[in-house]
Amino acid sequence: MTIDRAKAGAAIEIKQQKRGDLVAEEIKRLITEKDLKPGDRLPREVELQQLFSVSKSTIREALKSLEVQGLIKVTTGPSGGGMVVEVPLDRTLQLLQNYLFFKDVSIDDIYTVRKLLEPELAAGAVPHLTEQDFEALEASIACCDRPASSHGGQDIVRQRQEDVNFHDILAAANPNPFLRFSCELINEMIRQLIEFRNDTPQVEHERFGLANVKIHKAITKAARERDVEKVRELMVIHMTEAPRYVKRMKGKLRGRLILDSEIRRRVRARSVAPVDETDEE
Fold this sequence. Notes:
Blueprint: H1 5-16, H2 19-33, H3 45-52, H4 56-68, E1 72-75, E2 81-84, H5 89-100, H6 107-125, H7 131-144, H8 153-173, H9 177-193, E3 194-195, H10 202-224, H11 228-248, E4 252-253, H12 260-272
Antiparallel strand pairs: 1-2, 3-4
Helix pairs in contact: 2-4, 3-4, 5-9, 6-8, 6-9, 6-11, 7-8, 7-10, 8-9, 8-10, 10-11
C-alpha cells in the first residue's frame, strides 16, 4: 500500500490545529471577502456560531485570538461583539522587537536602513505638505531650539522626543503607505529601544539637539520652497551625521522584550497627555 506523504502531512497539520484557530482563520477570510474596514462590526456571536456550526466557547476563543493579534476589539454586553480595528503600530513594534530580540541588530544597522528610506520619505512628502504640516514642523523645531539646561532633565526628554516627531510629521504627509509604515516603525523603535548611559554628559545631548535643529530648519526651508532634490540631499546628510552623535553619546539598543503592560500604558498615556519617554533620533 502506497501512502501519499504530502496528503498525510497535511491531514496531520489540520488535525493538530485547534478549532478556535480554524474559526479565527475563517473570520479573517470573512473580513477580507466582505472588505470590512476599521470600525465595521463583525456578525454577533450567535450568528458566528450558526455560520461556522461551533460552540459559543469556540467563537469566543477565536475572537480572543484575533483581538490578541490586534485585528479586532471585543466588547461585552447586549450590543457587544467584535469590531474591526487598525492594527496598532505599538503592537507591530512589539512583534518585531520580539523577533529582533534574538538577532544581533546594531545602531549602525538601523541607520543604514534609515539612510536609504528617510531621504525618499521626505522627498515624497514635499508636494503634499500643507500649511498645517509646516506649522507642526516649525513647532517641533521651536521646542528643541532652546537651552535644555534651563528647563531641567524633562526638557531634554521632550526635545529628544520632538527630534523624532519631526520625522513622523514628514511620514504622515507621504502618500506611499508602505514607505510611511516602514519609517514610522523605525521611528518607534528609536523611541523605545535606544537608550543612553546615565553618565552621558549633558553637553553631548545639547550638541546633538543643536545639530538636529540646524538640519531640521534647513529641511523645512527647502520643503517650503518645494525643492524636492534639496530635501532629499539634506536628509542624506542628516541620516549620515545622526548615528555619529548617538554613538558618541554611548547609545545602545535595549536587548529585552517589550511587555504587553508597557503597550497598554503607552496607549493610555497618549490618550491623556504627551508621553514622557527617553527618545532619541
